[in-house]
Amino acid sequence: MKQYTQISLVFIFILFASFSGVSQNTISGTVTQPNGTPIVGANVYLEGTYDGVSTNEAGQFSFETQEEGIQTLFISYVSYEPFLLAASVTQMKDLKITLREDVNSLDTVVISAGSFEASDNSKVSVLKPLDVVTTASALGDFVGALQTLPGTTTVAEDGRLFVRGGSAEETQIFIDGIRVFTPYTPTTNNVPTRGRYSPFLFDGITFSTGGYSAEYGQALSSVLLLNTIDEPDQEKTDISLMTVGAGIGNTQKWTTSSLSVNASYINLEPYTALLPDRNEWQKPFEAISGETVFRQKFEEGLLKVYAAFDTTNFQLDVEDINVPEGINFALKNNNFYTNVSYRERLGSNWKLFAGGSYTFSKNKTTIESAAINTTENSAHLKLKFRKKFNNRFKLSVGSEQFSSKIDEDFNDPNFSKTYGYSSSISSLFSEADIIFSKKFALKLGVRGEYSEAFNEFTVSPRASVAYKTGRNSQLSLAYGDFYQQASSEVLKFTTAVESQKTQHFIANYQYAANHRIFRAELYRKQYSNLITYPSSTPEFDSNYGNDGDGYAQGIDLFWRDDESIKNVDYWVSYSLLDTQRKYQNYPTEATPSFANTHNLSVVAKYWINDWKSQVGFSYQFGSGRSYTDVNKPGFLQDKLKDYHSISLNWAYLLSQQKILYFSVNNPFGFKNVNGYQYADTPNTNGVFNRRTLLPAADQFFFVGFFWTISDDKSDNQLDNL
Amino acid sequence: MKKLAIILIVLLSAKGISQSTERVEKTKYQQGMTKAFGLWEDNKPWEAANLFERIASAEPDNWLPFFYVAQINILYSFSEKDKTKLKAQLAKAKDFLNDAKAISKNNPEIMVLEAQWYTAWIVFDGQQYGMTYSGKVAALYQAAQQIAPENPRVALGKTEWDLGTAQFFGQPTDKFCPELERAVALFDTFVPEGEFYPQGGKEYAMGVVAKTCKK
């Protein structure tokens, strides 16, 4: 028997040897998930060869190869990280391989504390790019749409973003990572301002109400990040005709580059002639603006050049309780902004970003006989490198430089003065993204800033973590220190002040599933080193200090549901805010007049298929803001009445490329009050008279016709509205 | 905008020539591709996709295996109910689509497939992707048509997309019939550039004609 075995072994040996001396190796093993469950259908093969197989029901694989020596075994399966093993083929036997989850996949935890995203590619998108333009109250202004999110306070007469008890200057706006110095159009004090830049240039918006990345500085409360489109889809011409003006845009595409140009002209003269408002206009608001974006693709890089110019002018008599005939106010503003950015994928997982912006703004303000000319020249330069060590660890380092120069001259028949300042801030930042697993991620950053004018160095640590608590829910925490220099209103008179500081503590819970999203965020913000001065407004000879401080705390709730009611998409935001501060000329700690306790927004959109129409509704409520009643003891001790506003809009698709758009703000004519102005001197009864500050108009109507001409005849401007 | 999602699904099963009667010595590539198409026909698309992926690894300069890995992942995402899996599949498809594009530039077949990739996202979530991606789909078909007006899959894909848009706006659809019928006819005259090149879709095109152009 034994002999027989030997013989057959020899026989088998001969049999094998006769196959031209090629050795066959069997590669075998099992592929499992981290929890031990076998992976069925994983692709197992030797890289660069035809030898391989799919795993069976038990996760097992076995295949023959004629390859020899060191080979790379490659295993891939959807939503898992590919596995590579370089070894001698003879050793690839009975392998036990566990695939790691791919943390790049869309169900990985993301750090959501503080930030809201509006984009297509984001893992948690609260808003969609289209919302910016289809939200009834927004009137095509991206800032207007963000004001329906929690954490913002409705300051109807202002129009800028007020975040979590912070003033409007505490929010900074960035386009493609580069600072915008003058983001808002100039306006008179009872007409809300708008964002200067047209929303259709952007395809991603991140609005952070706190705890943001170390990449961003010089903002105490909030940052708004706008990203321009990388590549337009096609060549087209857009024409818009509106009750307030007209616009035209054109996009041209070439193989590796594209150019978009658009221009608009706004004149409120016909509108105010037809529907007069409370202002005595000599020259109703008129604005001419032009924008252009050029994009050039390179093998591994992308260059974007953006430039915008606009000129605005108006003149009116502003009501004033101390001056019965009103105060004449005129403004001419020229604003030029350019932003150049370049990003490139370098070798070995390095990425480069370089960019810069330059702003030139000239304001000519005339108040009665006084003429004030302000010129601002500001620039921002940024250089950033990012290295991806692997899917789980990324590190970025960068440096930036802000420079601002503001010159102002004040001319009155009996007084004139020239003043100004220049400031420059240099900073370094670094941030690490660490993903421990699909469930747990950490972001750690630090930012150092040096200000030349103040000879001051600040260091701000930032940290946030996110943990996935369930399939659709997650918890994140964030902490950060934030510094910002005093506003130009103060800096033009003194630079002997330090940076103001806030600290943010944020806890966020988020649940997102099936087109429904719920977010709750609890926060505390601690202010210190706020600017103080004794005069009622900053003046030449005021005595400035950094003796202010304060806090803001509250809870922000957000619910969006696009699923429960057919053809209806709606969201509800509620913010509870408790804030007090002592700064500027405040005699005591008080709630500033731009903050209130309760804010509620309800936005709904209803698509009516038979009418090819989208009908939009939005309601905004803000509890009364504080004001000082000088006839009573105290400071900011009284509350205005609550604010209510309803907006309705209707977009009707005449055909693929023609849209008719109607909107009305406050159709029910709520009488909102923005504040009171008290007389400088008391009347004969010893009482200070007051004047109610009302919006320029209670209602606003808008009709527009938008027409797109393109080759494929299906594109339209719905996303421009 | 949710209703944009209704806009159609383009399913083009492109199967290569799997049978060759000539008894010529086949290369490993030919054997592999033939086997992969065989698996696909035997209703084992994922094994086919795995095999295409292995061929792609051995033939890094040939766009076809990359193309078919992407195509299987896209095709079967239309019927995938598990959202996490669907997203992962489309992500994988995008990787292979990018590889195919890098190997073969301005290829109308790849453009059609890329248009289908965007369509898959629109079908998955029209509210989120409808408005932005439909422009990209239209642009891809437009570009593909300029390069290859006689390619039946380009003609079919583009016409079906326009047809869906017209349906969405409640416009008459019978004006697309001549173009659809032209697409069907093109399947008979179209000569693939090489072995294993995409060539299927005629049955599907005839189905669209039957549905749209009731006489």
Structure, described:
The complex is a heterodimer of chains A (721) and B (215). Chain A has 721 residues and is mainly β. Chain A has 2 domains: 18-98, Carboxypeptidase-like, regulatory domain (Immunoglobulin-like); 115-720, Maltoporin, Chain A. Chain A contains 5 helices and 38 strands. Chain A has a 22-stranded antiparallel beta barrel. In chain A, strands 8-11-12-9-10 form a 5-stranded mixed beta sheet, with no helix packed on it. Chain A is globular, with a radius of gyration of 31 Å. Chain A starts with a helix and ends in an 11-residue tail after the last strand. Chain B has 215 residues and is mostly helical. Chain B is globular, with a radius of gyration of 17 Å. Chain B has helices at 28-41, 45-58, 63-75, 83-103, 108-124, 126-147, 152-168, 177-189, 202-212. Chain B contains 9 helices and no strands. Chains A and B meet through loops of A and helix 1, helix 2, helix 4 and helix 6 of B.
